[in-house]
Design goal:
single chain
Length: 81
């Protein structure tokens, strides 16, 4: 993914997978608003790290792992607070 083509691919991925990712984060966080924030953060991190993904078929699983990691991080912070 390079340049404008890469951005279009990320936009398509966002449209296709946003609801699924919010559902996943919602299961972990039990809060829709926080889940949406986590997914938005995940897409931003994915955008910055997309050059690391050599196999385009792994994009969704990479995004899923970012969502899970961010949700777990929020849970840890809630536990500390």
């Amino acid at each position: 993914m390079a340049g404008k083509q890469g951005n279009l691919e990320i936009e398509a991925l966002f449209r296709e997978r946003y609801s699924e990712m919010v559902g996943l984060a919602g299961l972990l966080l039990n809060d829709r608003h926080t889940a949406e924030e986590a997914v938005q953060d995940a897409f931003a991190k994915f955008h910055l790290a997309r050059h690391r993904i050599a196999d385009p078929d792994r994009q969704v699983s990479y995004l899923r792992s970012i969502v899970c990691n961010l949700a777990r991080g929020r849970l840890r912070r809630w536990g500390i607070e």
